[in-house]
Amino acid sequence: MTTEKQWPVRFTGDPSNAVPWLKDHGVERVRLEWVDYNGIARGKAFTLAQFERGLGGSFAYCATALAFDTQANVVPGTDFAETIGYGDFVAVPDFSSMRLLKHESAAALVMGDLVWPDHRPIEAEPRRVLKRVVGETKALGFEAMAAAEFEFYLLDKDHRLVDSGTQAYSSQKRAQWLAEEYALLDAAQAHAEIEAGHYEYGPGQYEINILYRDILGAADDSHLFRATMKEAALAIDRRVTFMAKPFDKKTGNSCHVHLSLWRDGVNLFADRGAPMKISETCRHFIGGTLAHMKELTAIYFPNANSYRRLVPGLFAPISLAWGVDNRTASVRVINETASGTRVELRVCGGDAHVHLVFAAYLAAGLDGIRNRIEPGPVATGDLDVDRKAERLPDDWGRALDALEASSWAKAALGEAFIKNYLAVKRYEYDNWRRTVTDQERDIYIEWL
Predict the structure, then answer these.
(1) What pLDDT, on a 0 to 100 scale, did the predictor assign at position 43?
(2) pLDDT score, position 383
(3) Residue 109: beta bridge partners?
(4) Which phi and psi (to 5°) does residue 248 adopt?
(5) pLDDT tens digit string along 309-325?
(6) pLDDT value at position 5?
(7) How far apart are CA 35 and CA 68, in angstroms?
(8) pLDDT number for residue 243
(9) Whole-angstrom distance, CA of residue 69 vs CA of residue 316
(10) What is the pLDDT of residue 166?
């Protein structure tokens, strides 16, 4: 097998050369995967010979896998299960996403575009939703560049904390778990160039910064980074979680999304002579982001636990506001250099579905540019304690209602997607709100 000195190792050639490239790199198995509505990786692993044979026909999967909730219960009322007799869809390899793996020997992975057996595209598939918004971005003459920062907790095999105390940025704490960090990040380098990492605010919590690139590639890298970190942890008898609020009274896990628009190598968000050094295009992008944030909350906060992270004082923004280098704002402008000027969406947890968040965030910003939406005055100070600041929605049921009522979201992200996403999420929401927890029982059973 070819020894690579620089990771990630991605295929960049013509699709007709994909199989020779795999053979040249000693690949024996190819994972053909997609991502469901919960951000969970699903797919199959093929021998290279079978993968090559399948390229002449199709790779069929039971479409019901796109109707799963987080625990893989089959959700009724989607377009992918009982309504089609639990039939198949087909995954078509998108070779622009193909890369070698590090934690699985002699293996490569490629994302699939999902189509029906008659080759009609599945418009409700999450990755296609992002591709649709990227197409609109290019039609406006922009190239969207993005990057994500992820926080996660390192846990033991029983999902318990391995550490205690709070020592953010501590080099000593990082050194304490260096073997685990090396094993996890070594595997993750197959998907993205990791710029930096540090010990975070929670016990055994880390933050990892991924290098920015084109937004579709960044979404694939981010999704696969998270999935691979969880797989690599199993191999060292550890676990990691990106759950938004895994532990009570401790800081949650975030996913910060950095985005900028470019044309001909020029960052269109920068204007060094303008107020706050941002362009009119950037200002309107922020305006659209804020204007649509309430109706997109059910995408930014995708499950019941997501909303438990919205606690003042723990660096999870709760205010519908924007600021310059203000970490308590939901939208933060970073403007230290012209090329590095960008807008950071800070509201999402580590559980965010990156393809859908990138799509929703980009679509909202583009609408702001089209309609010249002003973002309002820049916020300053600690917005967590500012009682006048408008708050983000903090209830899952109302967030789902807002998404369903949004005609703009249906137009921007597709009616088929909104219908199926809501079916899956409402099923999980209804199960959650009807479940009696141990804590609830402990509080009430003796006295009521």
Answers:
(1) 96
(2) 85
(3) 31, 99
(4) -65, 140
(5) 987 777 788 889 999 99
(6) 62
(7) 11
(8) 97
(9) 26
(10) 83
Residue pair 317/345 in contact (Cβ under 8 Å)? The answer is no
Structure tokens, 397: 């049921």
List the domains of the chain with CATH numbers. 15-122 (3.10.20.70), 143-409 (3.30.590.10)
Other beta carbons less than 10 A from residue 336's beta carbon = 9
- To 5 degrees, how large is the angle CA 237–CA 103–CA 57? 125
How many residues does this entry show for the chain? Answer: 448
Q: State how far the Cα of 232 lies from the Cα of 209, in Å rounded to an integer.
A: 18
Query: Which residues does the chain have with pLDDT short of 70?
Result: 1-5
- As a whole number of angstroms, the distance between CA 348 and CA 32 comes to 28
- Residues 6 or more apart whose CB falls under 8 angstroms from that of 238 comprise 154, 155, 156, 157, 162, 180
pLDDT tens column, 262-277 = 999 999 999 999 989 9
Decide: helix, strand or coil at residue 213: strand
Report the distance separating Cα 420 and Cα 78, nearest Å: 5
* Tally of helices (H runs) and strands (E runs) in the chain: 13, 16
How far apart are alpha carbons 1 and 3 in whole angstroms?
A: 6
**Structure-token pair, residue 274:** 């303008």
Convert the pLDDT of each residue in 191-203 to its tens digit: 999 999 898 989 9
49/427 Cα distance (integer angstroms): 40
CA–CA distance, 192 with 41 (Å, rounded to integer)? 17
Q: Is 231 helix (H, G, I), strand (E, B) or coil?
A: helix
